[in-house]
Amino acid sequence: MNSNHNSGDEIQRLIDLLAKLPGFGPRSGRRAALALIRKREILLEPLAKAMADVAQTVTECSVCGAIDTRDPCGICCDPARSGTALCVVEQAGDLWAMERAGAFKGRYHVLGGVLSALDGISPEDLRIPDLAARVRAEGVTEVILALNATIDGATTGHYIADALEGTGAALTTLAQGVPIGGELDYLDDGTITAAFRARKGF
Length: 202
What we know:
Blueprint: H1 9-19, H2 26-38, H3 40-57, E1 59-60, E2 67-68, H4 74-77, E3 85-89, H5 92-101, E4 107-110, H6 128-138, E5 142-145, H7 151-163, E6 170-173, H8 189-197
Helix pairs in contact: 1-2
């Protein structure tokens, strides 16, 4: 698309920025821009305001590392949340996924990634020392590892286990295996093996 012929520079800038979003490309960017412009009053203007508000107020929780508009975040401030269970996740998006499921009523700790020799991410780059300090200071009795089922996730889990040794907290991990509604024929070998090893009484 010729930025000077078909659309104004401002519109082209909007398209280019939208195209940089995860899951988007130039074509999706154009489609999204057109939808926003066509519904200017109900979509574009409220979106622009919401983005400006978030840009001004977004912060990282100094306690758990979650993304929120206040510090400490809403979860850390919630007195109804159990303080004895701490769920460790890689990124804020994982925390949002856990909250969407509504299965956990404790508090979280966002690492900010996983250990990765390939990407040069070392323990110093993650919030593992903060985790050990929190477990000791807050009287946490269970730390639940909700890390992605990857080699780097497993390596990070082992490192956390070493870091928490002597704290007295029990270390658990999410069960891995057959998803709800999953058919065995469609699952990969690793998932089937993990489900078989994690089998329980019927």
